[in-house]
Amino acid sequence: MGELKQLSIFAENKPGRLEKITRVLAEAGINILAVSISSSVDFGVIKFIVDKPEKAREILRENGFTVSLNPVLAIELVDAPGGLHSVASILYKCNVNIENAHVFVQEGRDKAYLIVEVEDVEEAKKSLSGELLKFY
Amino acid sequence: MIWDQKAECMPHKEREELQLERLKRIVKYAYDNVPFYKKRFKEAKVKPEHIQGLKDIQKLPFTEKADLREGYPFGMFAVPRKDIVEVHTSSGTTGKPVVAGYTRNDIDLWSEAMARALTMAGTSRDEIIQNCYGYGLFTGGLGVHYGAQRIGATVVPISAGQTKRQIQIMVDFGTTILTSTPSYALYLAESAEEEGLSKRVKLKAGVFGAEMWTERMREELEKRFRLHALNIYGLTEIIGPGVAQECMEKSGLHIAEDLFFPEVVSPDNLEPLAEGEKGELVITTLTREGMPMIRFRTKDLTSLTRGKCKCGRTLVKMSRITGRSDDMLKIRGVIVFPSSIEKALLAVKGVEPHYQIIITRPHHLDEIEVQVEVSQKMFSDEVRRIEETRKNIEDSIEAEIGLRVKVTLVEPKSLPRSEGKAKRVIDKRAL
Description:
By secondary structure, chain A is α+β, with helices and mostly antiparallel strands. Helix content of chain A is 29%, strand content 35%. Chain A has 2 domains: 4-70, VC0802-like, CATH 3.30.2130.10; 72-128, 2-Layer Sandwich (Alpha-Beta Plaits). Chain A has helices at residues 17-27, 53-62, 83-93, 121-128; strands at residues 4-12, 32-39, 43-50, 67-77, 100-105, 112-117. The longest helix of chain A has 11 residues, at 17-27. Chain B is globular and about 75 Å long.
């Protein structure tokens, strides 16, 4: 079971923030594999799956951003009707509560993963062990 | 109209004699009855006998808000507690409030001072006063009330709030004098216009105070309500409202100087300033029994002008307050120190002291926004968690200052840094 880490960055709700963050990442030669944005009234948290997470965190901090790097579950999705449903059924059966989720396509585009943010990744992995799930 | 012709129009020389006589008496009284003053006088090596002329007041030590807090609750009283018939506290909620105690004679003194003030605004027995100052521990409500009762005017003790009802009453009762904060008066004016009732409002004058305001606001209030908008000044430490009031000349506030002796000193070295020079107002209560104040530093910035006014009064005039010599703010009439906001911020886990306080007056009511930089410790990958922290900061500030503020989280290093003292407060109210 491989581990995938997701970058979270604090951003004010104003134009140009995503532009600035992605510019920093682009200039550092970091490839973004997935992005999701969740926002409140005045601020948001921008999340990335990137190829070099540690380096990305370092470079963003150097540029003054508030960043954290957290483990997430990455569950392979079958490219067929019912693909997401089968994963969701297992998560439900094992009582894994989803805080946030989005989809990430692997470099080379051959596989897609459901990124699942949960309260406790280790705990969730334990609950899901023995299930027919493929992790990143 | 003049309430107390003798006291308000007395020749300057004659008043100085009266002031000196009262000053000598109050200084000795304070020295004999308040341990705080005895101690301070001794430290400054002065005795009541050293007061031989009015200028000798400059030998006496100053009294500050912090001294009053130190004496909380009754340490500044000059009489046994049983002789105090009423207490008030200043509107600030930081730590210990300032307690003011009044004997029956002090209530009488306050009623007289307020009767003078309200009369300057044209109040007689024929008028109906709608008093929107808050009743309770705040001195505004009862101060106006006592003055109105002394005159025999009809007072409507409504306090602030319930704006629609305020306007209905104003129209139905035929209110002629409005007493409120200027910002609340503007809000009332706007609401009256919205209700289509402006034309039926019969106000003649407004007695506005408890916060800083401007000539521009005066124009606005006079235009909207077709009244005389007059400035009133006072503070809990001295008595409450009624220390000074503008007459219809609208060229400064007459200080009831036979009761409250004014000085203006330089905020830098506390040296006395000449007439017309702007500095910090210092007041000594000349007749107050329950809690005499000797050279109290108001920290309000103003200047004094002498000379007989067209209204007939010889009382010295102070200019409209234009600022403070400390960083005290008044938000919706409530005293707020930026330092208490900082204290509340830092009480929340993970918050770093990178913040800015922005004050605006969007709809004639003050609002505070506190911008706080998100630190690594406050950050979470979950919006919900960050939102919780943001709310915790709002709650913490509310518990400290007594006002709900809006907290906005901003990115690290996005607030301006300065080399010396950080500029924490941005006041956009155009005061």
